Amino acid sequence: MQKEHFEILLESVDSKINLILEGFSVLNKKIEDERADRKEDSALLNVKISALSKRFDGVDSHLDGIDARLDGIDARLDDMTSELTAHRNSTELHKVPRKREVRKAA
User: Fold this and answer.
1) 55: region left, alpha or beta (phi > 0 left; psi from -120 to 50 alpha)
2) What distance in Å separates the CA atoms of residue 67 and residue 70, rounded to the nearest whole number?
3) Using CA atoms, how far apart are residues 79 and 72, in angstroms rounded to an integer?
4) What does the mean pLDDT of the chain come to?
5) Coil, strand or helix: which one is 17?
6) How far apart, in whole angstroms, are the C-alpha atoms of residue 46 and residue 79?
7) Closest of 55, 51, 100 to residue 63, by C-alpha
8) What's the pLDDT tens digit per position in 12-39?
9) DSSP assignment, residue 23?
């Protein structure tokens, strides 16, 4: 009787261990599938980041061109300001004082 009881317990334990192993197998498959999905997501993310980086480089070079143009405009404005100041100073030197208006007697 003890041997039969022990064999029954062993069969029960064996079936439970088989269930556990099947569960581990299923979990392992799910983990591997998830890893594969993460690799695909990572690859797609890298492609998108690379594309954004190229777009930022394009915007950056465009802004560099605009900065250069603005520097040229600033230099021209400085030159014009200097010329206008010199012209004003020259004009004020030749300024004729205003004559007083003569009021007519009423």
Assistant:
1) alpha
2) 5
3) 11
4) 89
5) helix
6) 49
7) 55
8) 999 999 999 999 999 999 999 999 999 9
9) H
Q: What is the DSSP letter of 2?
A: H
Q: CA–CA separation, 85 vs 95, rounded Å?
A: 15
CA 27 to centroid of chain Cα atoms: 38
* Ordered DSSP codes for 33-102: HHHHHHHHHHHHHHHHHHHHHHHHHHHHHHHHHHHHHHHHHHHHHHHHHHHHHHHHHHHHHTPPPPPPPP
Look up residue 95 and give its two tokens: 């300024």
Is the model's pTM score more than 0.85? no
Cα 75 from Cα 77, distance rounded (Å): 5
Cα distances (Å, whole numbers) of residue 61 to 48, 51, 56, 72, 73 = 20, 16, 9, 17, 19
Distance CA 9, CA 58 (A): 73
32: helix, strand or coil? helix
